[in-house]
Amino acid sequence: MNKILCKTSIVLLILIFAAGCKNPFSTRESEPPIGTSGTWEVPTEPRIVVANLLAAYNERNISNYRRCLSDSFAFSAYEDSVEAEQNGDGSLFYDWDVNVEESVTRRIFQSFPQGSDSSYLSLMIDLSSNEFDEEDDSTAMLIREYTLSFVTNGESTVDTTIAVGEAMFYMSRSSIEGWAIDLWIDRPDPRESGSISWADFKVQFR
Amino acid sequence: MSPSSNTAGVIRFGVVVILLCMAILTEAEGSTFRTLFNQDNQTYRWESSLLYNYKPSDRFRVLIDGRLRSTLIKESLIASGADQWQEDREINSRLTYQFSPRVGVNFDIYQSYNSLGQRRLQDSEITGGAVYRLTRWLKFNYRLGGMITSRDEELGKRLDRGAKMFWNAMVDSRVFGRDRLNAEFSIEENIFRTIPSNEFTFTGEYSKSFAGGDSFLVKYVDFRGKRKYYASAYSLEGTNSQVKHERALESILIKGIPLGVQTRIEAAIDFNEYRYTSEEADSSELSRLKDRDNSRFSHNLVVSAGRKFHIADRTPEITVHYRFSGYDEDFGLDERDQESSYGELGCILTFDITDRDSLSADASVGVRSFYHPDEFALIADRDVSSEIFNLTYSRIWSKYLRSNVRFGYRSFDQIYLSRLSSADNNSNYTYLLAPGIVWSVSEKLSVYQNFEIQANYITYDYEKRLLNSRNRIFRRGDSRSRMEYRFSENLIMDIEYGYRYEDYGQLVWDEQWQQLTSWDRRTHFGNITFDYLFFGRFRVLPGYSFDYKREWEHTEETDPTDDEAPIEKARVMKDRQDQRIISLQFEYIFSELERFTFAASRRIIDGWRRGHIRDDKFTVSLSRSF
User: Fold this and answer.
1) Fold designation for A40-203
2) How does B569-594 read in b/e, with b if 16+ C-beta sit within 10 Å?
3) CA contacts within 13 A on the Cβ side of A195
4) What is the pLDDT of residue B1?
5) How many residue pairs from chains A and B have C-beta atoms closer than 8 A?
6) B468 touches chain A (CB under 8 A)
7) Which of A160, B26, B158, B177 is the most buried (most CB within 10 A)?
8) pLDDT for residue B283 is more than 60
C-alpha cells in the first residue's frame, strides 16, 4: 500500500511540475527571412571543410563556422605563443579548444558585422590543393595560405591591417558527422617581419 | 644564428644528454631516456627527453627531467619563405633530503630556452626550501630563490632579475571517521623589477561518506593573481597589468533513494573576472586593453538517476539524466556580450538479453539558446535543438562467429530569430546503419566484414525554390573486408580491401522528396601488412596500401539552337586520383626496456586535380627505461 502511495505521489508531483512549466525543449519562433543566406556544402571531402570555413567567416555565420570544427578541436599558434610567453602573456594561448574558438570567432563577427560602415573584415584563403596535402581514408592534413584584412576606426584614425600566413588544418572523418577540423596550426609569414598573423588577430578577442 | 650553428648546438646538447645518461643512469629505477629524429618533405625534427630518478636511500632523492626539441621548417609554402628554426629546451632538477618524517629540505634548478627566428627567450630559476609537517594533517612548505629572465629580439634585449618566494600550508584531515577535510593555501611572489607577479590560491574540499555508498562532496577554489607583462614585442617600452579573480564552487551528491534508484547530483558555479590596465594612461593601448576587460559567470547542473531491473535472471540497467547549464559573459561592450543556456534530457540502456545477445542504446534531446543585448540580438540570437539516438545490438552465434549491428540517428535544427539571418534556418538529419561480423575460421585465420551506409539530409526552413534548391542529400556506403592470418607465432599477415560509394546532390520536394545527383564518387582502397618477428628481438613490418578514387559529375546537355531538343543527362569523369604508399618499419628490442625503431614510407599520388606528388618520410627513435 505504501509503495503504491509512494509511486502515485511521484507521478502526481511530476505531472504538477510538468503542467506548471513550459516545454524546456521548445525553440523560439523566427521571423521570415528578408535576405540571402549562408553557404554550406556537406563536408564530403577535407577541401570542402576549408571552403565552408571561408564562406562562414566572410558571411559571419557562427553556426556554420562551428560545424567546421570537431568537438575535440584545438588551435595552436606556436610562433605567437612563444612571443606571448616572451611578453609574459602566454596564458592567452593556453587551452584553446572548440569553445574558446567559437567564443573568440563570435566576438570577432559581432565586432565586424557584415555590411557595417564603421568596420571591415575580409578573409581570403587559397583553396587550391598543394603537394604537402595528405589525405587518407579517415584523416587529412591541408595547408592553405590566407590573407585577412580588417579596418578599424579609431577616435581620429582609420587603421587597415593585413594578416598573412599559412594555416595547417588536421582533419578527421567520423562516420556520422563527416569531415571536421581537429587541429588548426597557424604560422605567420616569415617574410613579413613585424606583421601580424591570424592568431595575433584572434587573440585580441579572447 | 645560421641553421648550421643551430645544428651544432643541437648535436652538442644531444651528446651531453647521452653522455649524462650513460654516466648516471645505472641503477636509477623508474628513469627513462628517449631520442627521436623525424623527417618529411617539409620539416626535420629532433627530440630527446630524459627523466632521471635516483633514490639511493629513503632520505635522499635526485630527480632530473629534461626535454629538447629542435624543428627545422624548410622553405615555407608562402613563396620565397625562409627556413625557420624552432628550439625548445627545458630542464628541471630537484634534490630532496628528508631529515626526519617531519622535516625535509629541497633544492630546485630550472632552466628553459626557446628560440624562433631572431627571438630568444631564456628563463632560469634557483630556489631552496623546507617542508615541515607539524602534525599528520598539517604541512607547511616554504621556498625562496632567485630568477633571471631574458628576451632577446630584433629590437634589442630585455633582461629582468628578481626573487621568488612561495608559501604553502596544507590541511589533510579525517574529521570524523570517513569525513575528510582538505584545505590548501598558497602565496607565490615573483618580485621582478619590470614584470612582477603574485598569486594567491585557496582550495577547500569537504567530503562525507555514508554507509550504503552514499556520499557528498563540496569544493571551493579561489584564485587571485596580479601580474605585469611587456606591452609589445615590437617596442621595448611599457608594461601592461592584468588582475584576475577566479572562483569556483562545486558539489556532488550520490544518494540511493527508494525503489532501488541511485541518484547523482552535480552542481557547479564559476565566476571569473579579468581586468587590464596600461602604464600609459591616455594611450590607444589603454583603450585596446579595456576592450579585454571581461567577466564570465557560468553554471552547470546535472541530475541523473539509475536503476538496475531484474527480469528473469537478467539485470538491464537504465540511467536517465537532465543537464541544465549556461553562462553570462560581460565585456562591457554590448556587441561582444552573450548569454547562453542549455537543457538536455538523456538516457542510457544496457541489457544483456541472453548469454549471447546484448543491447546498448543511448538517446538525448537538447536545446541550446543564445541571447544578446537588445540592439545586437538581431543577427546572432538563435536556438539549436538536437536529437541523438544510438543503438548497438551484438550477438555471439558460436565461439567462431560474432556479429553486431549499429544504428545511429542525429538531428540538428538551427533557428535564427532575426529576419536578417533566418534564411539559414535548417534541419540537418543523419542516419547510419552499420552491420559487421567477425568469423574466427581457425586459430590461424580470422575474417572481418563490415558494411556501413549513411544518409545526410539538409533542408532549409524557408527554401521555396523547386529548381536550384539549397536542400541537399549526401549518401555514402562502404564495405570493408579484412583477413588476419597467423602463419606462425612470429609471422602475421593482415589484408584489407574496401569499396566506397558516395553521391551528393539537390533534394527536391515534388510531392515527395527526390534526389538530383550532382556528382558521385567511387573509391577502391586496401592494404597488406606483415608483422615478422626474427629471433624474438628483431621485428620487421613491411606494408603496402592503395587508394584509387574516381569522381563523376552529372550534367545536362542541351542544344542551344533547338528549343525542342530533349535534355540529355551526362555523367562525365571529373577527377581521378591514385595513391600508393609503401612502408617499412624495423624494431630492434635490445631488452624489455630498450628499443630502437626505424620507420620509412614513400607516398606517390597521381591525380588530375593534384598532379604527380612524391612524399617521403622517415623516423628513427631510441628509448630506454630503467
Assistant:
1) Nuclear Transport Factor 2; Chain: A, (3.10.450)
2) eeeeebeebebebebebbbeeeeeee
3) 18
4) 40
5) 196
6) no
7) B158
8) no
